[in-house]
Task: structure prediction
Amino acid sequence: MERYDRAIRSAVINSVENMLFIEVLPGDEQRSPPNEPDRLTVSILIHAPVLGELRLSMPESLATRITAAAYCLPAKEVTDEMRSDTLAEIINIIAGRFLNEILDDDQSFQLGLPQIESGPSIDQGVEQQKWTFLSDADAFTVVAIGSDLLRR
Amino acid sequence: MGKKVLIIDDSSTMRKIVTRSLRQAGLDFDTILEAGDGVEALQVLQNESVDIILSDINMPNMDGIEFLRQKAGIDAIKAIPVIMITTEAGADILTEAKSLGAAGSIKKPFTPDQVSDIIGPLV
Result:
């Protein structure tokens, strides 16, 4: 799992810092962020060469801050559509970078389309691994789901 | 005459990020045009002459690979260099893109320096 830890941290930190210039630090894995009602979640399915899913979940305030940075706009001008598009793009990039790190060199992979989640949270019976990150005072999580993905 | 670039990506966020990265890389294009997929891009290129095209691969309606294929068949635009900007950088996809005329590729996430290194020599 250490290889996965390195891969997901590298994917998240590089994606958000390199492209959006927002500092991200690894968070305390034992202290998951609270389940605030305003948390936004986006998921992406991995279809090949392994089956699995990644989910990114963050407070609306952080999603707004990241979107404002991407669009070079004041936070008050960020729309729901911009925020959803930004979260979708971030999970897509994180998933791609993560798979590039854990798969053999240049091995192709296939991702689904990112989906904004409004339904129930992940079934606790499903194999999953959660990582927590911090950006200023905001904590956000990335969850990898599926035994095929996690036992590779 | 000022330089023009066309950015093709179905994500408006990514189009903004690419635009900002070009500026931060010191590549000051006078005109930055945008298209949401290959179909829109071909429509833009009917009316606009551009110096370089930056294209995503996975897009609805017409993806980046099909866009390259269509572009290669149009005399007026086939010589315009195209850089693929992609998450899925599998060797087979990039080989296909190169065989269809792509001048290079940038893997997301990218830094302005990487953008400068790859696009700078082409413009």
In short: The radius of gyration of chain B is 13 Å.
